[in-house]
Amino acid sequence: MKNIIFDVDTGIDDALAIGYAMHSPEIHVLGITTTFGNTSVEEATRNTIQLLDALGESSVPVYPGVEETFAGHEPLEKTTWIHGQNGIGEAQLPQPKQSPQSMQAHDYLIKAIHDHPNNVTIIATANQSNLARAIQKDPSIVEKVDEVIIMGGAVKTDGNITPYAEANIYHDPEAAHYVFQSKVPVTLVGLDVTMQTLLNQETVENWREVDTLYANALADMTEFYINAYKEHNNEARGCALHDPLAVGVAIDSTFVTTKAMHIDVVLEGEEKGRTVGIETNQGNVHTCLEVDAHRFVEHFIQRIV
Ligand code: BDR
Ligand code: CA
User: What PANTHER family does its record include (predicted)?
Assistant: First the structure.
């Protein structure tokens, strides 16, 4: 079983990723850190706790991050057109049962990695500010973390928040740059593969038949997400399982094929947030370039509700 720390901006597909992980016996979630992006840190924290409650997993501790980019700027506006005003497509869940932890996200990452040397995988499905802060404060964690699986970037395809940039990198490009150059072992699960993993409306309707608080909330938020994709592109056959694919890779790395790359992040100008990949045997970023989308989506559907 792998010890996992999630770093999230919950977020509809973050919620799907957390649900998938909690239903996967290969994974043991030690704790969850939160950041801004799809929504604010406060809302991402609340959404995460409410989801854990609905999953019957209220004992998993949640550590809020800092509401500021690595370079000290205010976060960009939240992406309400994809994730709704509350970050989870206006799905309603009961008041949170637990309070957020008082320890800050980056301090928790440092502590957990030292508590479980070479036995922690971080699944980061949001911007990189918590991890960058943790590495800056204690660079020794780079050698002690097993793997960092990041949903982010687009090496061969276009971006999604700008024509060049993927959202998680764009929300804090300096943090992503800092993490990539730190030499921490990264597996990058970007739009090159996640845009092929589509979930359709029919599946969501099946969840409603399960009729639990959790399944209904998941159906509400995912319907919002599918509609947002349709508004953006009439031809869309569903929504992309961006963040769940990062969990899929942690469970079974054969869902994807990767190439070792050096990744640069463009920090200024029109292409800000773009991830530029250069193939090299010395590269510390294992970049996903192909995915067995059908097998992964089936696996996800089997487990999610
Ligand atoms: C990523 O950005 C966020 O909107 C999603 O939750 C996902 O992590 C996709 O680009
Ligand atoms: Ca996310």
Answer: INOSINE-URIDINE PREFERRING NUCLEOSIDE HYDROLASE (PTHR12304), URIDINE NUCLEOSIDASE (PTHR12304:SF4)
Question: For the chain, what is the domain count?
Answer: 1
CB 19 within 8 A of CB 57: no
- Phi then psi for 271, rounded to 5 degrees? -95, 15
- How many other CB atoms are found less than 10 A from the CB of residue 205? 11
**Cα–Cα dist 136/275, whole Å:** 21
144 bridge partner residues: none
Kindly report the CATH number assigned to the domain that includes residue 214.
3.90.245.10
Q: Which of 9, 13, 192, 292 is catalytic?
A: 9
Q: Which domain holds residue 272?
A: 2-304
Q: What is the pTM of this model?
A: 0.98
ipTM: 0.98
CA-based angle 160:164:165, to the nearest 5? 55
Pocket of ligand 1 (CB under 6 A): 11, 13-14, 37-38, 79, 82, 125-126, 151, 160, 166-168, 242-243
